[in-house]
Design brief:
alpha/beta; 9 strands; about 290 residues; TIM Barrel; about 15% strand
Length: about 290
């Protein structure tokens, strides 16, 4: 997820219209516990979402990045998962292993897809050196390892990149975390499926296109309590429309300080950033209300 809020022009004037994040009739909220925790946090100000962990300084989707997100007091720590060729869910954003691991060297070929790679080969990869030498030999964690490592010390936002709804639910049920996480996806058909399988699971629907009336209506079928959108694609009136229907609104991915202020002024309930520590500081000192 990439993108920044380009401008805060006109946002202050609209702020008063966008304050409420209370549920409205018709919104399927998943786990009442998670949904209400999110709404309570949002009433204090925008929630901070650590994008792939604290990924500005740490290698994304690794245990050091997740731990840093917790340490920096992010309200939610976000991670991505793919399924390996033998069906194990591992934390990674890209379909291919090249960008954030040494797969080309270790496996001897380029553009190796996670879905065609067994866990035994994933275990051989270094997922940290690309970021900095001090992170050398950092492994790619499985989703189970990540959730076992910090799953009850922070709210976790789990993004499905590739993998079945049933495989994710198997992990969450195994760890007794169904009522402790927020699951999101760009694939709204997949969200509908996992909502049917586990109506109590809290969901967020990811969006990357301009919000249309058709998308707004379609959103209601996903079972989501949150709309998590590309900050460049939403207008102030879109934020208002989503809130009027009872959705929490999260904006991604914002790293600049003017963008933080603009998202907060626009009424965002959550801001997804690679720099969670800095956003937490700005919220605490009142620079981002």
């Amino acid at each position: 997820m990439e993108g920044k809020v380009a401008s805060i022009h006109g946002a202050i004037g609209a702020m008063a219209l966008l304050l409420s994040s209370c549920a409205q009739p018709g919104v399927q909220q998943g786990s009442a516990g998670v949904a209400e925790r999110l709404r309570a946090l949002a009433r204090r100000g925008p929630m901070v979402v650590a994008h792939r962990g604290s990924s500005h300084e740490y290698p994304e989707n690794t245990l050091p990045a997740f731990e840093a997100g917790v340490r920096e007091r992010a309200d939610l720590v976000e991670l991505d998962f793919h399924a390996t060729s033998d069906g194990v869910l591992v934390c990674l954003h890209d379909e291919e292993l090249d960008r954030t691991t040494d797969a080309e060297t270790v496996l001897g070929r380029k553009k190796v897809r996670v879905a065609e790679t067994p866990l035994s080969d994933i275990r051989r990869l270094d997922a940290g050196r690309w970021k900095a030498a001090r992170f050398a030999e950092t492994p790619l964690p499985t989703l189970v390892e990540a959730l076992e490592g910090f799953g009850r010390r922070s709210l976790i936002m789990i993004e499905r990149k590739q993998g079945s709804a049933s495989s994710l639910l198997e992990v969450l049920r195994q760890l007794d975390l169904v009522d402790e996480v927020l699951v999101q996806a760009f694939d709204w058909d997949w969200l509908e499926e996992i909502h049917r399988l586990e109506p109590g699971l809290a969901l967020a629907a990811l969006g990357k296109d301009p919000l249309t009336p058709e998308l707004l209506d379609r959103l209601g079928r996903t079972g989501a309590c949150m709309a998590h959108w590309d900050a460049r694609k939403l207008r102030l009136e879109d934020v208002r429309a989503l809130k009027d229907r009872g959705y929490l609104v999260a904006l991604y991915t914002i790293d600049d300080e003017i963008g933080f202020a603009g998202a907060a002024a626009a009424g965002a309930d959550a801001i997804t950033t690679n720099r969670p520590g800095r956003l937490v500081e700005l919220i605490r000192d009142g620079s981002v209300p």
